[in-house]
Specification:
Layout: E1 6-10, H1 14-25, E2 29-33, E3 49-50, H2 54-58, E4 63-66, H3 71-81, E5 90-93, H4 99-111, E6 115-118, E7 121-122, H5 125-129, E8 133-138, H6 144-154, E9 155-162, H7 169-198, H8 202-209, H9 217-227, H10 238-254, H11 260-277
Parallel strand pairs: 1-2, 1-4, 2-3, 4-5, 5-6, 8-9
Antiparallel strand pairs: 7-8
């Protein structure tokens, strides 16, 4: 690598921590910040510099990467960072946000003369830790060479959706993809719940679909987390999946589409969160199907 960048990572949850670790391993200078500092501190072992404020984190940054809960959280943190942001800094906005949020964030970038990239990622904990995410990105071609080393460090593939990050084309594709992911995840939980209620062994169901068009590796992987009681630590948490489901429902409604499956998925995930599963893997929506806690 010929160019070493200074990269600021704001938000070190499941995805942000893994992304920061891989950027540091690629040889870049990494400065990280997280609202709960204890979640960022372990990254010192990977060579990252943990900072006390967003402004301190973005000091002298070539690229800022935000991986926060939602659009309003990203805006709040970037406002805190604003005094130290340099004009011309590239901003990779990887938080899964609503379409209206993307426009707001892009407006903030314009006000501060930042080069804005709408850059959500597709993947969960395991591909994030392996640097195998798929990055969906939109932003000016003239500056892509500057952000390419960061994208290459966190992902196996970058899918460019356009040159105008303000239009949210990458986020639009992410919301469509997440609609499928959430539908399959919630359906997997419902299949297992009904099988348990009817006294059908999961293996008999998997044997039935094995090798056919109904079989799916994702279905088996998510089901295994339930059947083997491996819901923690989550690949992607229930509370975050519920948030994403609501973003999908809102995007559909804003564009004249009624999304019944996404609406039901959001309600089921929120019910699971209310039952105490908010920080477990999103397939813990399985538990929301029972009127009483299922017996082991």
């Amino acid at each position: 690598m010929t160019d070493t960048l200074t990269v600021s990572v704001l938000g070190t949850g499941i995805m942000g921590a893994a992304m920061a670790r891989n950027i540091a391993r690629a040889g870049h200078t990494v400065r990280v910040w997280n609202r709960t500092r204890a979640k960022a501190d372990p990254l010192t072992a990977d060579g990252a510099h943990v900072t006390g404020t967003p402004a301190e984190a973005v000091q002298d940054a070539d690229v800022v990467l935000t991986v926060l809960y939602d659009g309003p959280a990203a805006l709040e943190v970037m406002r805190e960072a604003a005094p130290a942001l340099r004009p011309g800094t590239a901003w990779l906005q990887s938080t899964t946000a609503g379409l209206d949020d993307v426009a707001t964030l892009a407006g903030f970038a314009a006000d501060h003369e930042l080069v804005f990239y709408d850059a959500p990622v597709l993947g969960t904990r395991q591909p994030a830790e392996a640097g195998q995410l798929t990055v969906l990105a939109a932003g000016p071609a003239a500056h892509r060479q500057k952000v390419a080393p960061v994208l290459d460090a966190v992902g196996a593939r970058t899918v460019w959706t356009g040159e105008d990050g303000t239009a949210g084309s990458a986020t639009r594709l992410k919301l469509v993809a997440n609609t499928w992911v959430l539908a399959v995840t919630v359906a997997a939980g419902e299949v297992l719940a009904l099988a348990k209620a009817l006294g059908v062994t999961p293996d008999s169901f998997f044997d039935l679909i094995e090798g056919g068009t109904l079989d799916m590796g994702y279905l088996r992987a998510k089901s295994a987390l339930v059947l083997e009681d491996r819901l923690s630590p989550p690949q992607f948490a229930v509370r975050t999946a519920a948030k994403d489901a609501r973003l999908i429902v809102r995007a559909g409604a804003d564009h004249g589409i009624r999304l019944d499956v996404a609406t039901a998925s959001a309600e089921r995930l929120e019910r699971a969160a209310g039952q105490g599963h908010a920080d477990e893997d999103m397939v813990a929506a399985y538990f929301a199907g029972f009127t009483a806690p299922p017996t082991p």
